[in-house]
Write a structure and sequence with these properties.
11% strand; binds magnesium ion; binds 6-O-phosphono-alpha-D-glucopyranose; globular; alpha/beta; 6 strands; 9 helices
Length: 228
């Protein structure tokens, strides 16, 4: 069914824009982040679990490094050394995402973002990742978003709402009319702190503060959105 502005009228809550986190919502880059951080930890002589890796979702590059160093009880690194470690990890990571293709877009993501646009909603990306421009280009998704706010343009990481508030501002939509789609607890908190509605992507057991949770954007429809 083709839904467009003419046939779909948003009734509830006056939703005007959807802001999407990138990693884990539009594309599954978590696996590449995990591989690169794991390689770095292994080089330093320790390992961490996939479960621990969950805690890195939505967390900025340097904050992720701090967590990992903590897990390995590494306490002797200078700021310059930390920067070098983060750069080394990012070099491996960018090598991997350089091979990505549009086939790696998560199921339903492109379709749902397009449906939002067809219904007259504005769309934006709100991500902590400094690699956002590269990923969107590789996935050929740039034309789907009216605004892109990422780790290059914000100074305070999630759960601070800066990234989403900046997105709302660029879209010229008041925060209360924005819905944020997030897979990370810190991201849901950021959206709530910004006064926005939230859809969690993942498990309701983990994303307990989201207004609603779906397993992926393939489970999302404009009808569900309208009932938020
Ligand atoms: C996203 C991911 C995190 C990652 C962060 C920074 O929030 O979920 O795992 O650490 O972006 O990514 P970057 O590409 O800038 O290292
Ligand atoms: Mg995410």
């Amino acid at each position: 069914m083709i839904i467009n502005k003419a046939t779909y009228n948003f009734t509830a809550m006056n939703i005007k824009a959807c802001i999407f986190d990138l990693d884990g919502v539009i594309v599954d880059t978590a696996v590449y982040h995990y591989k690169a951080w794991k390689r770095l930890a292994n080089e330093m002589g320790f390992d961490f679990t996939e479960h621990q890796n969950e805690q890195l979702k939505g967390v900025s590059r340097m904050a992720s490094l701090e967590l990992i160093l903590g897990w390995g009880n590494v306490t002797n690194k200078t700021e310059a050394e930390k920067l070098e470690l983060a750069t080394r990890k990012n070099d491996w990571y960018t090598e991997m995402i350089g091979q990505m293709t549009p086939a790696e877009i998560l199921p339903g993501a492109r379709e749902f973002v397009q449906a939002c646009r067809d219904a007259g909603l504005k769309t934006a990306i709100g991500s902590a990742s400094k690699n956002t421009p590269t990923i969107l280009a590789k996935l050929e998704l740039l034309p789907l978003f009216d605004a892109v706010v990422d780790g290059n343009s914000v100074s305070t990481p999630k759960p601070d709402p800066e990234v989403f508030l900046k997105g709302a501002e660029e879209l010229n939509v008041e925060p209360s009319a924005c819905v944020v789609f997030e897979d990370a607890i810190a991201g849901i908190e950021a959206a709530i702190n910004g006064g926005m509605k939230t859809v969690g992507i993942g498990s309701p057991d983990m994303l307990t503060r989201a207004d609603m949770v779906v397993s992926g954007l393939d489970k999302m429809t404009l009808d569900i959105l309208d009932k938020l």
